Here is the input.
Amino acid sequence: MWVYILKFEIDNHADLDRNIILATQAGLPLVAEPYQQIAEQLNIDVEVLQQRLTTMLNDGRIRRIGAVPNHYKLGYTSNGMTVWDVPDELIYELGERVGKMTFVSHCYQRPRFLPDWPYNLFAMVHGHNHEEVLEKTEKITALLGDNCRAHDILFSTKILKKTGIRIGVKS
Amino acid sequence: MDELDRKIINRLQLNFPICDHPFAVVADELGTNEADLISRLEQLSEKKYLTRFGPLYNADNFGGSVSLCAMAVSENDFDFVTEKVNAHPQVAHNYQRDHALNMWFVIATESQNELEEIIKKIEGETGLPVKNMPKLHEFYVGLYFEV
Here is the structure.
C-alpha cells in the first residue's frame, strides 16, 4: 500500500520534480532566500518547492541537501578502492559491517568477472596519505578474517573527470 | 581557512534546512550571521574547498541507471581513450587507478538501454572491452570529511 502511494505520488509530480532537479542539480544559489530564487525561476510557489524537496528527501530521491567538500583540498589526497572476494552467502552481513566502519565512504556489492576479477565487495577508503589508507584497509582485513579469500587495493593516481551525475544530458 | 570556515564545512555536510532563510538558521547555530555565512561560502566555493552545494540526488531512485565501468588501457592509448570516454556527458567521473584495470568511470543515464548504448559506443570508439560493474547492493554511502 505504501509503495503504491509512493509510486502514485512520484508519478503525479514527475514533471515538476524533474524540473526541480534540473534547476538544482548544479547547486543552490548562495543568496539569503535560495529556495525563493529557484521557485521564481520555475514559476512555482516557494511552499510547493519546499514541500517537493522534503518529499524527495523523505523517499530517498535526495540523499541530503548540503555541501560536498573537495577532499583533496582538505588534505585527503589518497583514496583506495578496496575490493574483496567474500562468500556470496555472507555478503549482506559482511557488507553491512564493512559499510559501518567510519572511514568507509561507499560500500557496494558488485558482480565478479572470473577468473581475473573475483571481487564482489567494494569499499572506498580515504586518507591523508597511502599509509593511512593501508592502515585502515588492514582493519577491514581483520574484520573479514577467514571470510576474505582475496583482496586488492586500487589507489587512484589521477582524476580524469569529475562533473558529478547529471540528468537531462545527451551525447 | 579559519576555525569558523572549518565549522561551516563540517556543519554543511549534514542537512541544510528547508525553510525561507536557511542560511540564517545555520548561521545562528554557528554563532555568525546570514550575510557572513553566505560570503564565506562564496569564498570557500571560489577557492575550491567545496565542489558542490545543494541537493544531492540519488540517481537510483529515479528509474535511471548508474554503473561503475572499468577498462584496461595501454599507456600509449591512455590519453586517446580518456578523451573518448570523457566526451560522453553521461560519464560523471573517471579515475585512473594503479591496476591492470586502470580506468574506472561512472556512467549515469535515465534508462538501462541508454547505459548499454553508451558502453557499446565507448567500446566501438576505443576498440577496448568495458567491464560493466553495476552495484548489486548498496551497504553504505555517506561521505563525511571532518576538517
Observations:
- Residues 130-144 of chain A form the longest helix (15 residues).
